[in-house]
Amino acid sequence: MNMISLLMEMVSYSFIVRALLVGCMVSLCASLLGVSLVLKNYSMIGDGLSHVSFGALSVAVACGWSPLQVSIPVVVIAAVALLRLEETGKIKSDAAIAVVSSGALAVGVTVTSLTTGMNLDVYSYMFGSILAMRRSDVAVSTVLCLTVLVLFLICYHKIFAITFDETFAKTARVRTSFYNTLIAVLTAVTIVLGMQMMGALLISSLIIFPSLISMRVMKSFRGVVICSAAVSVAAFFIGMILSYGYGTPAGASVVLVNLAFLTVFSLAGKIAASRRRHT
Fold first, then answer.
1. How far is the C-alpha of 214 from the C-alpha of 235, rounded, in Å?
2. Phi-psi region of 248 (alpha: psi -120 to 50; beta: other; left: phi over 0)
3. Are 190 and 204 in contact (CB under 8 A)?
4. Please, what's the b/e burial string for 75-98 (b: 16 or more CB within 10 A of its CB; e: otherwise)?
5. Rounded Cα distance, 268 and 221, in Å
6. Is 247 left (phi over 0), alpha (psi -120 to 50) or beta?
7. How confident is the model at residue 232 (pLDDT cuts 50, 70, 90)?
8. What distance lies between CA 39 and its chain's CA centroid?
9. Would you give the DSSP letter of residue 248?
């Protein structure tokens, strides 16, 4: 059965359609934000925030609260706190992320072990599950993803400025602190929305891989952004089709497709560079 046939079969199931819709939007948001995060050497914030989100979700599930309503504000606060620590220079970003990440994960595991145990809800948030996407989640995720996309497009030039030369941006009277905070908040929201699909252990790959892939062949910021968005959505769709066809976990399948893209684009970039040197 080819990919087209598999895709047609997949869209006959409403829960897969919901997963494809939300996953596509989350992949797009993550790829756009990832370009700036990777260039600013802050890409691992996704991994740290995913663990914070898991801790918050574990507490929410144990208390019977809405996971999204609890985790989004908690992760946003954590993202802003990490940014402030980086700006003040009191602790390096990688160390701050490691502390927050391990601490939040420990809270989540402890709360889970003392209350509900590793039930289906907690398992799906840790490793991802397309079955976890409910209609209400789709509505909330769609609104939030569209908000992230609109804000990114509106602030594109400012984000470009603080990504490449924050010192110059300050002299040009760009509110660097505000836009850094905006990136952190948008990243936090994207991480929480993507956890149901990818899981806490793999969600950061949506931020890192598309940017690294695009940088192998594109030289301009705009080119990297556009290529990153296209690669991210394509990798997500291919990963979902492979997951459905072979019965593999959705999140892991998407990551493996991204890894394959990185290998191919890296080879293409080396070949192109070699031809330029010989001309």
1. 13
2. beta
3. no
4. bbebbeebbebbeeeeeebeebbb
5. 19
6. left
7. very high
8. 15
9. -
DSSP state of 217: T
**127, 128, 132, 138: CA torsion to nearest 10:** 150
183 pLDDT above the threshold of 60: yes
Question: pLDDT digit string (tens) for 71-98?
Answer: 889 999 988 888 777 666 666 777 778 8
| Residues in the chain, overall count | 279
> What percentage of residues in the chain have a pLDDT greater than 70?
91
φ, ψ at 2 (rounded to 5°):
-80, 175
Nearest to 240 by CA among 232, 231, 249: 249
Q: Measure CA 42 to chain center.
A: 13
Per-residue CA distances from 235 to 28, 100, 227, 239 (Å): 11, 30, 12, 6
**Range list of β-strands (E), 103-168:** none
User: Model confidence over 110-149: pLDDT tens digits?
Assistant: 888 887 666 666 666 777 776 666 777 788 888 888 999 9
Measured distance CA(133)–CA(129) in Å, rounded: 8
Provide the mean pLDDT of the chain: 84
